[in-house]
Amino acid sequence: MRASVDGAGDPARPCAAGASARNARAPSERRDDHVYAALDLGTNNCRLLIARPEQRSRRKTDLLRIVDAFSRIVRLGEGMGSSSRICEQAIDRTLEALDVCREKMSARGVSRARLIATQACRAAENGAEFVERVRERTGLLLEVIDRETEARLAARGCGSLADPRAESILLFDIGGGSTELVWLTRDAQGCELRHWTSLELGVVSLAERFGGKSVTPAIYEAMTARALEGLEAFAERTAAERRCERFHLLGTSGTVTTLAGVHLGLERYDRWRVDGLWLSDEDATRAIDSLRAMDFDQRAANGCIGPQRADLVLAGCAIFEAIRRVFPASRTRIADRGLREGMLLEMMEADGVFTRES
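RESULT FIELD:
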């Protein structure tokens, strides 16, 4: 994927997997091991993906063979709306999750990894202190990425799901503490990142501000209105962009994957049925209405939501609602992929593994 901006940080940066960086092997010594890991520590989730390159096809799709994966809700940004600091309880939860990640990377023989942290660590007064505590306890070196890099990695990880016949696509990633939007255009050479923005608005911050357990119609509209305010500048910047008949939204977040699961009537979330699903505007509205009709206990009992996300999902729906109002489209493609896949592909391409195996 071509991009008009370059993200900060080296996408092929070697990070330790159970060891400090000074003890990690040099990239030239591990190029042919082909075991890669990508860790995304967000405001709400800690997620790890371990993969090898897949070269069964010459097409630039499905280039990853997943070896292992891990995801845990840690709520790293809990309470930051009032304190601007990562609290001790959140640090403890996150350190426990990172211990699991370190063990998995060691067990799988990971030789090349990129470990990123996003909005919570960017915004917290004690973000640097937290990163150092992670290094001391686990040996893992977290890279706190900037907003532009986060937007670019999301585009890299999800771009293959864009309709190849669409001239323009709006990619959005609703996170715990921020929401990234990327305007993509497509020509004969592929996708180009034309515009991007990052809003300091996510499901955790919005739910903490307005309340997430009991969401009345008035509260839901207030959350939507707050998201609409945040979208104004980006809407003005992209107003001149052409929107063909095949223009569509491309969503990557727990919000949209949950809505897809609700739409499909899944008793338990199934990534293989959700990733790549096309959700019409009417079906998206019905799924949101279904969630809004549930009380907290009903949302917690839903197999696609669960008790840990039951107080956050409607905040995500409000952000999605605002995006749909500002950028109306007849359909949204759902992506159960994103930053981790983007990191893995960039590392593999930097190592030239696809070239060597093709």
